[in-house]
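Hi Y.,

Following your request, here is the sequence exactly as I used it, all 415 residues.
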Amino acid sequence: MATDTATATVDKAWGLISQSRESASGVGSFTRTRVERALALAAAVGFVVLGTQSFIAALGATDERPGWHLTLVLLAFIPLTAMILACLAGRAIRVTAGTFVVAFVLTLALWPFATVGSDPVPTEQPWPWYLINLATMASALVFPFPLQIVATVLIPLQFGVVRMIQAGFAPDFWFPVGLDVSFALILGGIVITLGWTFRSMATNVDATRARAVDSYARAAAADAAEKERIAVAALMHDSVLAALIAAERAHTERERTLAVAMAREALTRLANTEKDATEGSDEPRDGGWIADQIESGVAELGGTVIVDRRTADDAPAIPGRVARALALAAMQAVANSLQHAGGEGLGVVVRGDERGIRIEVRDEGAGFDLEEVPEDRLGIRASIFARVAAVGGTAQVDSGAAGTVVRLSWRGVAA
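Below is the corresponding structure, written out as tokens. Let me know if you'd prefer a different format.
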């Protein structure tokens, strides 16, 4: 009873996870997204505290010449305010943080011009000094890690240079300015190290979660496919027998049509035992879609093949179920080539014209004798011949010492 309850709980939880490709990427960034949000909020608190301290210092500043003070204050604090609001709102963080870094670097660049003729005090830091590590924190929000290191080193050094220019490189400024730069370098290094650590941990957690979800998805898919095979095996005998009886007793056109439909359903069930694919919609497809499916399917098998596409403009649209069946049969032929011939000389051609669609899978392996393939091997009989026959197509396999050629065709006859 406990086992049934646990299984039902797991199934319910799994059902809440979307199986689309878009949701898979979301699963892979769950923790990283939340860490980024936490870093933005923590940075906003730091911006408010240090920004307020710097703004108070700027109110009483007398270093700048008339007309420069208001310009530099607006240049530094307007982007800072926008960045704080963006961090709190969780929107446009990268844009506003990048703008603040650029604005602060420009403020430092203008500082020597704004303070020409001033009389600075060695033991008193100017108000831009309080914003140095805010620029470092902002770079951690917007730049990749190598550029974060560059900003953490260059911005404090830029402050030291402009401060010494303001002081005329007086000897009594070297030691206090060196202490200020060292403090800014150490604090900035701590900031970017913490950010890198938290992001790395989040990335590892997301990667582990994604692998776990993928592993469970594969296991669930394999279990479902195995259950389907068992169910199909139980139904195949009755389905085939019923189709044979219907064919034997068919005397009218309606009865013969019914017998053909029953036989086709049985063949489709048999073909699908080798592939966990549903029949899906019947939306028309073209030869390009089939070629794309073959290439992606081969990629999932760990191989590579470039499909030669030769589709005429007047080629008719192919019903979705037919296109899927042909694509799956072609992928099975490619899988056989990769497994038994090592993919030697592997080539795939998809031709489409006014008569229908033709697919050719060719390799240069040692070949095989179709008559000697064991009866219980469904790779060719079910996944190629039965699958193609189920949609009204034809399949042909020619194999010899020079290689193997699998030809699939569908002539546009309604299946």
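DSSP finds twelve helices and five strands in the chain.

Thanks again,
Q.
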